[in-house]
Amino acid sequence: MVLTLSSTYIPPANTHLTPADQMLVAKPLTDLAKDAVASAGPAAVYHPSADAEPMQSLEAIDTWVGRSASRALPRIIEIAKGAQSVLNATFKTFQSTLAATYPDLAGTKYGFTVEADGALKVLNEAGQLSSSQTQRLTLLLNQSKDLKAAAITFRDASIDMVDADSPWSGNYLGRYSLTKENFAATIDLVPLFNKPGSVPPQEYADGFFFSQLEYKGELATRETETAMLERRGAQGLASLY
């Protein structure tokens, strides 16, 4: 097809439409059309497959996130490390004295911890101590003023460290609630001094501070965190936590 373009303007044949004089009139349906409409069914019928369930009401879920790690956490960790180092040295001195004076006790496997009132408590998880040996060792531990003081210092520094940490950042120690009341049920001090190769690998790993918290510690909650912050506030240390 060839299209020819011209610059000459050609007017349309008719630029105006003239309205018709004829009016549109609706015609009544014939009897045949009326019968067809009356007998016609719906185009589609919806059949639900099951009874519609009423919409359930929404339930609000309150989630506890917990505090952020304190800016003082690195310094508090160093204090706890120093307290553990002093406790380790003091315990070695105690063991040396025990071996010289009570070799039957020094040759047994035992642990010890700190109770809420600051007394040292013997732990006989290996079952190598008799009742009388446990009593005697408990007396000797508490008579060692240096060891007792070092153990209490480490306990308090450990609680400070856990309180300063966060449940979701830092070292995650804040997942747990460590207090003077539950420390004895959570931390055995002797495994903290184990050296690689001195005990089986699993026992060595289980002796870590965090490991003991993980399998024996009390999980922190909104309530325990609130109580901790109130306690720190009463001590004038709220800004650190």
Automatic annotation (TrEMBL):
Protein name: Uncharacterized protein
Lineage: Bacteria, Pseudomonadati, Pseudomonadota, Gammaproteobacteria, Pseudomonadales
Top-level taxon of the source organism: Bacteria
